[in-house]
Amino acid sequence: MNLLLALSVGALFAAGSYMLLRRSLVKLVIGLALISHGANLLIYASARPVRGRPPLVEAGMMLPAEPHSDPLPAALVLTAIVIGFGIVGYTIVLIQRAYQDVGTDDLAAFTTTDR
Predict the structure, then answer these.
(1) CA 15 → CA 85, 98, 100, distances in Å?
(2) Residue 3 belongs to a domain with what CATH number?
């Protein structure tokens, strides 16, 4: 499980870095979203997720039974996903407006704001 998570994080960071190096504004945003998802997966993997062991305290016990998954990174990742979707949605609207003004999504065309 940890190997699969590590490979997934690496693939997301690699694909995101590749997309950041493209000249298209849309690909830039997709690359940022991929890197964001890779960071979220890395935070989730740091919680050492254990399959089938939720952090629930049973009756008569003071602490959850070991091993269990830490719920805090999962809550942080859920919050980051929601914020990330909002930022991507806002950025898509900005890209659409920039495309209407400039007529292209090529980053080289954004050398001046006088149009």
Answers:
(1) 18, 25, 28
(2) 1.10.287.3510
pLDDT score, position 89: 94
- Please give the Cα distance from 63 to 79 (Å, whole number): 26
Helix spans in the chain (H): 2-20, 25-45, 71-102
21 occurs within a structural domain: yes
β partners of residue 24: 106
pLDDT of residue 47: 80
Q: Chain-centre distance of CA 110, in angstroms?
A: 26
Domain annotation covers residue 61: no
CA distance 21 to 68: 40
Domain that holds residue 8: 1-50+68-105
The verdict on residue 1 lying in a domain is: yes
Tokens of residue 102, six digits: 């400039």
Looking at the structure of the chain, the number of domains it has is 1
- Residue 57 inside a domain? The answer is no
3-class SS at 69? Answer: coil
Residues of the chain where predicted confidence (pLDDT) is lower than 70:
52-53, 55, 113-115
